Structures are given as structure tokens and as C-alpha cells.
Amino acid sequence: MAAAATTPTPQKNMAAWLTSPKSRPFAIADAPMPVPGPDEVVIRTRAVAVNPVDWFIQALGVIVPADGGYPAVLGCDLAGEVVSAGAHAASSFVPGDRVCGLAGAHGAGDFRSGAFQRYAKADRGLLAKISDSVSYTQAAVLPLGLSTAATALFQKDAMALPLPGTAAATTAMDNKDGAKKKVLLVWGGRTSVGSCGIQLAVAAGFDVAATASARNHEYCRSLCATWVFDYHDEGIEEEIVEALRGRECVGVFDAWSRGSVARCARILLKLEKNGSVSKGRKWVQTVLPGVAQVGEEVPEGVEVGYAYGSTLVRNEVGPAIWGKWVPEALASGALQCKPEPEVVAKGLEGIQTACDIGAMGWGTSSSPKLVVEII
Ligand SMILES: NC(=O)c1ccc[n+]([C@@H]2O[C@H](COP(=O)([O-])OP(=O)(O)OC[C@H]3O[C@@H](n4cnc5c(N)ncnc54)[C@H](OP(=O)(O)O)[C@@H]3O)[C@@H](O)[C@H]2O)c1
User: For residue 198, is it within any domain?
Assistant: First the structure.
């Protein structure tokens, strides 16, 4: 077993604290220096991105338990350099490595290990080295979107698609027998989760059909979607069914999942009538954690899948995606850091600004991914 790796003189840590349910602004104050567990890596945070879950927790007082969860440190997306690594992580990460990853394992009941601090820790299975050509602000847009999309597409209890780089994916990519690739429909191709979903599905050997506002059709094509449809069009269901005539659709990845699940299910039923459903499997994969969050009547005959963005750390998907695919795909350009980052502030104080901007009109405009540089 490798010895734990550390830098000699750790600096003082500071965090943006959520001191009690619905408190604002975040309180900037000292925080304990994180100590890596055997599978963990401590990172000097250089850039963080904000996500809907961050401003939902702050505004609504959800997820963090009032009893014992506060004061909390939120934040999922970080990029920075490695400071120290636990014994199991030290063979993969050494001090000074440039990395991006997913912090804040809320699911594991630790509410003080989020990204919104100068020194944060992440599990080695949710962390990747980034090439020199990728800046910290670019890399910070990826972690939660990528983890959620990978969980949804590849986990066995979700869509269970072949992982990029596996024989099944490679065969589909090579397309040697001249057969057409199978198709995945990604609803909400301009969301952070959908942007990663398109890129992961392409890497896994699928042709992708995506939906987005008309202004984002070129954006989705730049991520290698083959077809793009405007979800505002009344006739979108028929348009998709017509476009995919003669093709085999493996399901829908609904990367929005807020009022769109039934529509995705109807499309699958129509595709089935057209003979375009792969192996009769009609599966709408949501980005919601469970049935209670769906809030729509889903037509019978269609299965609905759920996903929680950090569960891939406990199975083969985390290492395959974070450990192998992300570093290679970032270096080769197969993975683009999208949506584009917009640095809206510098310093931990700026995280409140970023959350406030993000919460304003969320989902109604194609805002860039909001990023804060941590100085
Ligand atoms: N389960 C988990 O662990 C987990 C983790 C992260 C996120 N999520 C969920 O994933 C979803 C996406 O989150 P995100 O952070 O990726 O979102 P985001 O990047 O903030 O999404 C913004 C985009 O949503 C698109 N959009 C709005 N309404 C839509 C609709 N009716 N159909 C399709 N696209 C629509 C817009 O695209 P256009 O500009 O093209 O209109 C907009 O640009 C949310 O529901 C979020 O709560 C779940």
C-alpha cells in the first residue's frame, strides 16, 4: 500500500458557511483543515461552479438536516491542485497535480465537506487529473453534470449502457459492419447534465438526438449530437419519431426532468409503434433521485429510472469515467468543458453572488455555467 502523500506546510482553511437553514449570505470564516481519509484527496480549491442544488439548499432549507447538519459547507464542483492524498489515493494523486472533481458527499451524511472552501476534499473515485490546456475555471464546470450523466447512462440500476472504451462501445464506434449506430435521445441538451450526457453517449458509441431551444442547436451539434429538436415546438414528438424512422432508440435520457418526463415517455410509445425502439425497452432515465420527485403522470408501459449524482463512486462507473475516460478525453478534446464557464466573482465572498445570479430565472435562459475563482 502506498504511503499517504502530503505537502509540508498546510495553509489556513476558510469556508463559505451556511450557518443555519435558509441563512444568507454565506458566512466567510475559518474552517478546519480537511484530513484525507484513505480514499480521499485534499485539494487547494482554485475554482468552483455553482449548481441548482446549492441555491435550492440555501433558499429552501432542504437536504441538509436541521438536526446536526449545520453549520454546513455546500458546493459540488471544484478544480484546483492536490495538497495531500490518503493511503489508497496516493498512488494516483500526488501534491501539485491539477485536478477537478466532485466534493460534498451529502449522500454520505457529511455536510461540511463541500467545495465552497479554500481546502476541500474529494473521493479519489470522483476526481480526475486535468491537462495543462484546460484551465481551472473550465474544468470546474464538469463534476456534478458529468457524474450525474454518467450515473444515469451507465449505472446497472439506471440505463446500463456500455461504458466508453468497452468492447460494446468500441464495436458501435467502429461501425465496421455498416449497421447504423443505436440512438439515445437526450432531452435538455443545453443543461449542464445534458451537455455531459451527449458527450458521454457519443463516446459510448451512440448517435445522439437532443432537444434544446433553437438558439442552442449549434451548441448541441458542437457536442456531436446528430439531430437537434426545439422542445418549444408543439409537434416535437412527431418530428422526433419521423427523424428516427428506421433507427433503434435505446431510450430517453431526460436531463431536465422538470415537467418533461411524460413527454419523453410518449415519444418512446410513438417510436415503438414505428418499430424504432431497441429490444422493446422503453426507458425514460430521469435526473431525479426517486419517484416522489417526478410529479407527473407517466403513461403506462414505460419504465422510469432515477439517478443521484454521486452514487457512481461506489461502483464500476466512477473509476471507468473519472479514473480513465475523463483525463484521456480532456487531453484528446473528446470531452469539452461545457456549458462555457463565466467567472462572476473572485473569493469565497463571491459564492453568494454566483448563487444569487444562478437562482434568478433558472432554467429560462441559456446562462453560462457560473464560476467563482477562489483566491
Ligand atoms: N440527481 C442529481 O444528482 C442531479 C444533479 C444535478 C442536477 N440535477 C437535475 O438535473 C436537471 C438539470 O440541471 P442542470 O444544472 O444541468 O441545469 P442547467 O444547466 O441550469 O439547465 C439550464 C438549461 O435548461 C434548459 N431547459 C429549461 N427548460 C427545459 C425544458 N423544458 N426541456 C429541456 N431543457 C430545458 C435550458 O435550455 P435551453 O437554453 O436550450 O432552453 C437552459 O439553458 C435539473 O432538474 C437538476 O435539478 C440532478
Answer: yes
* 39, 67: one domain: yes
Query: What residues line ligand 1, using a CB cutoff of 6 Å?
Result: 51-52, 144-145, 148, 187-188, 190-193, 211-213, 216, 231, 255-258, 260, 287, 289, 307-309, 362-363, 366
CA of 13 from ligand 1 middle (Å) equals 32
Host domain of residue 87: 13-142+337-373
Q: Which of 367, 359, 365, 320 is nearest to 340 (CA)?
A: 367
Looking from the CA of 162 toward its CB, the CA atoms found within 13 Å total 18
How many Å apart are CA 322 and CA 310, to the nearest integer? Answer: 12
The answer to whether residue 6 scores a pLDDT higher than 70 is no
CA distances from 66 to 11, 60, 104, 189 (A): 31, 12, 17, 35
What grid cell was written down for 337? 468543458
Report the mean per-residue pLDDT for the chain. 92
What confidence tens digit (pLDDT) does each residue in 264-286 have? 999 999 999 999 998 888 999 99
